[in-house]
Amino acid sequence: MTGPRHDPPQYLPAFFVKQKLTLMVNRYEILAAGPNGEPGELLAVAQQKRMAFKEHVTFYADEERTRPVFSFKARQVIDLSAGYDVFDADGEAIGFFRKDFGKSLLRSTFHLNGPSLDAVGQERNQAVAIMRRFIDLPFAFHFDFTDPHGTTVLSVERQFSMRDRYAVTVPDRRLDFRLAAAMTVALDALMSR
Question: Contact 142/155 with Cβ under 8 angstroms?
């Protein structure tokens, strides 16, 4: 499978994220939603090094990882409530997210900010959130991000499987696809912290 010949779109109403486990890295594929709602065209690939002291994840337009198209990077070395900046291909900041450590003790909570968007995301189901903390099974879980008016801007649904797979919907055109994709990969990568 080869990657796209173009840059990722700035807005995409639905896409999928699939994780592939390898020995030293978590590898992610970002796929467009096909005409029947199934995973379609490859939009980007990313790798996250396990046990990194300062998280930095780059998304590439191709599987060979030759053309970076966006990235996110931690502001600090290992910090439970550290912030992460999201950058475009030229290194310009396009957004920011952070885990709210205090609120995440019982229900994971993240803050997501873009040029014209402020949103807070939480696990949809409190009971599943609590069970996940005590039972190490691949639970299906869902995150909903809403703006200050209560409007949903991003929903991420983890499908029940041994490998992590997420269906992502973005009902708000203000949310840049790159920021939504970075937040989704971060949910997977940071949930155990």
Answer: yes
User: Phi-psi bin for 36: left (phi > 0), alpha (psi -120 to 50), beta?
Assistant: alpha
Cα–Cα distance for residue pair 87/191, rounded to 1 Å: 22
pTM of the model: 0.87
Question: What is the domain partition of the chain in residue ranges?
Answer: 14-190
Which of the four pLDDT bands, split at 50, 70 and 90, describes residue 137?
Answer: low
Contact call for residues 110 and 83 (beta carbons, < 8 A): no
Distances (CA, A) of 16 to 77, 138, 177: 29, 18, 12
Instruction: Tell me how far apart the alpha carbons of residues 182 and 46 are, in angstroms, rounded to a whole number.
Output: 9
Res 193 pLDDT > 60: no
Single out the residue of 19, 33, 89 nearest to residue 61, CA to CA: 89
